[in-house]
């Protein structure tokens, strides 16, 4: 994720419109007629019926309210911090500049201070169970949650959610002049909850290696995006993570196992999956128990996907290249009604960029790009994924088509103070953008991530737990 000097800023997706001709226009007319026909036939199809009703599902109706943001960019006085100036990408607008500027007058909009922290132990009444994307979020002991680049495990044996992520409560520094902002490895943090709101710190379940400099987990290295799944056959909890050196040249995955969701995890080894470089990654366990590794490869220009062995401790030889040449990272997968979906980000280091949703009938592909899933806020919020980067999508059993989108609002000036942006993600309703290979016919319902300053899960969801 924070590869310095990888300047792949969001590109214009619309392609060349220069060669419009009469032929194209008549094709457009023809496609419009066919499109209307396909919408009509969708309504009659069993799936289509569900999709159209879903987007008006009473439980999620509140989550689908569109909230707007009207932020006035302050008049600039004086100098911006050198870091913000250096990072300023060519094509972005001033709101991203403000976001990256540690001294911005808008700092409190993106990084509200401790006074507004969400404290599930104290916040009762009107605020209970409410998510406030971007605010500091405290655990049951009153400390800010440290689980960045995280993932969620729902443990059926204990009916408990476990949130794993990078424990980054150390100083941010640059290893050398051209290096990305970093925090030494401390370990993988784990938090447990029954309600997805009140989080108990279960401690560091995989700790850094303090002395052995040749060890993957030596504090001078990089450990990112830990994800844990449970293996029914072996009874082990298996963790996969991105392992790297401080310059991001090792580009490997690491694997660790434990008998308990709360660890301690035993670190097994790192490897380059299928022999390729691997940076941002995730794992996904399908309904049939087969798990997959998905990773950014070929210098982040494409993603690779392949099944894990039955014990989840290695990859099998099969591998598919997907989203080739699209320069995507931070993959988060989920499945709805037999279709696979994925949210990814662009590759701009710690700076936010535009998310894209992708879909596939088979997890091994082909994957098609559906467009930006973000709704609400304002245009810059949507083009910057609400100033956050995808990390995981949590299914909400009991409300089909509803998920929580988990993202990180990175604070490169002080990475430990990076924030969590959790928002409702809903699959339903007709797609609003044509896909790549299907001549403009929506094959899948829309994936929508709705901006909210404050929101909570439907009451009935908690009642069903
Ligand atoms: C809770 O909400 C009600 C109704 O909106 C309001 O009257 C009340 O002041 C709120 N209480 C707190 C503690 O914010
Ligand atoms: C240091 O780590 C390496 C790599 O994991 C290992 O092979 C070696 O035995 C370790 N050395 C010590 C002294 O533990
Ligand atoms: C990282 O790169 C810097 C500058 O290019 C170099 O000085 C340093 O030795 C490298 N560190 C590692 C761990 O490769």
UniProtKB/TrEMBL annotation:
<keyword id="KW-0326">Glycosidase</keyword>
<dbReference type="InterPro" id="IPR023296">
    <property type="entry name" value="Glyco_hydro_beta-prop_sf"/>
</dbReference>
<dbReference type="GO" id="GO:0004553">
    <property type="term" value="F:hydrolase activity, hydrolyzing O-glycosyl compounds"/>
</dbReference>
<protein>
    <submittedName>
        <fullName>Uncharacterized protein LOC111317054 isoform X2</fullName>
    </submittedName>
</protein>
<feature type="transmembrane region" description="Helical">
    <location>
        <begin position="20"/>
        <end position="37"/>
    </location>
</feature>
<keyword id="KW-0472">Membrane</keyword>
<dbReference type="GO" id="GO:0005975">
    <property type="term" value="P:carbohydrate metabolic process"/>
</dbReference>
<keyword id="KW-0812">Transmembrane</keyword>
<feature type="compositionally biased region" description="Basic residues">
    <location>
        <begin position="74"/>
        <end position="91"/>
    </location>
</feature>
<keyword id="KW-0378">Hydrolase</keyword>
<keyword id="KW-1133">Transmembrane helix</keyword>
<comment type="similarity">
    <text>Belongs to the glycosyl hydrolase 43 family.</text>
</comment>
<dbReference type="Pfam" id="PF04616">
    <property type="entry name" value="Glyco_hydro_43"/>
</dbReference>
<feature type="region of interest" description="Disordered">
    <location>
        <begin position="72"/>
        <end position="91"/>
    </location>
</feature>
<dbReference type="InterPro" id="IPR006710">
    <property type="entry name" value="Glyco_hydro_43"/>
</dbReference>
């Amino acid at each position: 994720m924070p590869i310095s000097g990888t300047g792949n800023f969001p590109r214009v997706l619309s392609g060349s419109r220069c060669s419009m001709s009469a032929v194209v226009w008549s094709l457009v007319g023809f496609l419009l007629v066919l499109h209307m026909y396909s919408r009509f036939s969708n309504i009659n199809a069993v799936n289509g019926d569900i999709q159209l009703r879903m987007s008006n599902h009473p439980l999620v109706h509140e989550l689908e309210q569109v909230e707007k943001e009207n932020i006035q960019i302050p008049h600039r006085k004086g100098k911006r911090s050198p870091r913000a100036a250096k990072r300023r990408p060519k094509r972005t607008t001033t709101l991203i500049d403000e976001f990256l500027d540690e001294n911005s007058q808008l700092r409190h909009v993106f990084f509200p201070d401790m006074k507004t922290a969400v404290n599930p132990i104290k916040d009762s009444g009107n605020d209970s169970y409410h998510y406030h994307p971007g605010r500091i979020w405290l655990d049951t002991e009153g400390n800010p949650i440290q689980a960045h680049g995280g993932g969620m495990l729902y443990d059926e044996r204990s009916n408990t959610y476990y949130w794993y992520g990078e424990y980054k409560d150390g100083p941010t520094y640059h290893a050398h002049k051209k290096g990305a902002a970093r925090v030494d490895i401390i370990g993988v943090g784990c938090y447990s909850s029954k309600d997805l709101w009140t989080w108990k710190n279960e401690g560091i379940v995989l700790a850094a290696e303090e002395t052995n400099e040749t060890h993957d987990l030596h504090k001078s290295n990089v450990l990112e995006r830990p994800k844990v799944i449970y293996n029914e056959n072996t009874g082990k909890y298996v963790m996969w993570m991105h392992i790297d050196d401080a310059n991001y040249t090792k580009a490997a995955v690491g694997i660790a196992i434990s008998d308990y969701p709360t660890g301690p995890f035993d670190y097994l080894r790192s490897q380059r999956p299928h022999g390729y470089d691997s940076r941002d990654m995730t794992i996904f366990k399908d309904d049939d128990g087969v798990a997959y590794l998905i990773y950014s490869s070929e210098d982040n220009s494409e993603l690779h996907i392949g099944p894990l062995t039955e014990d989840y401790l290695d990859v099998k030889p099969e591998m598919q290249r997907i989203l080739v040449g699209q320069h995507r990272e931070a993959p988060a997968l989920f499945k709805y009604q037999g279709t696979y979906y994925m949210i990814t980000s662009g590759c701009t280091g710690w700076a936010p960029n535009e998310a894209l949703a992708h879909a596939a009938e088979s997890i091994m592909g082909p994957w098609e790009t559906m467009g930006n899933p973000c709704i609400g806020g304002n245009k810059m919020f949507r083009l910057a994924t609400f100033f956050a980067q995808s990390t995981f999508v949590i299914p909400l059993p009991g409300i089909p088509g509803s998920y929580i989108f988990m993202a990180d609002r990175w604070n490169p000036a002080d990475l430990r103070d990076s924030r969590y942006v959790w928002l409702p993600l809903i699959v339903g309703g007709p797609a609003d953008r044509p896909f790549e290979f299907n001549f403009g016919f929506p094959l899948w319902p829309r994936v929508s991530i709705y901006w909210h300053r404050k929101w909570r899960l439907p009451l009935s969801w908690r009642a069903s737990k």
